[in-house]
Amino acid sequence: MSETFTKSMARNIFYGGSVFFFLLLLALTFDTNSALPELDNRQNLTEQVAHGKKVWETNNCIGCHTLLGEGAYFAPELGNVYKRFGNSTDAIKGFIMSRPKDGIPGRRSMPQFNLNAEELEAVAQFLKYASEINTQNWPPNIQG
Closest Cα partner for 120 from 96, 98, 91, 99? Predict the structure, then answer.
């Protein structure tokens, strides 16, 4: 092999690498698109779930909680709260309603948002929907 690295050698390496990585990108894109239908959870998406997400966003729940790993780490992960509360939307609603008006003095706690019955049910259904998403075993433990 020649001791000199020429422009044509550099060009060939560049074009060869570009073609290789473009083909790799196409292969990974095809693989991802073929796996996505197995992970689809849209059949459970209802108007109530959408309303629950709106309530979630309006009250900035993600400012303290994480949902499927996204959000703040101040409060517990809620992607599996439905399973943690025994597969019960009533338990979720009861927990939200039981929060003290001004929180617990001296410690961090969830405030009382004074949600009406419709909003409570919508948030509970949204959290149920989030827990049914196939996250491929994430979070790795039940406590989030």
Answer: 96
Average pLDDT by consecutive 10-residue portion of the chain (144 residues)?
A: 83 96 96 76 83 96 90 88 92 92 78 93 95 78 66
Query: Is residue 144 one of the residues assigned to a domain?
Result: no
Q: Are residues 30 and 75 in the same domain?
A: no
Task: Say if residues 134 and 41 touch (Cβ distance below 8 Å).
Answer: yes
Q: Match 């961090």 to its residue by tokens.
A: 108
Please check whether residue 141 lies inside any domain of the structure: no
- Alpha carbon distance 137, 121 (integer Å): 26
pTM for this structure?
0.71
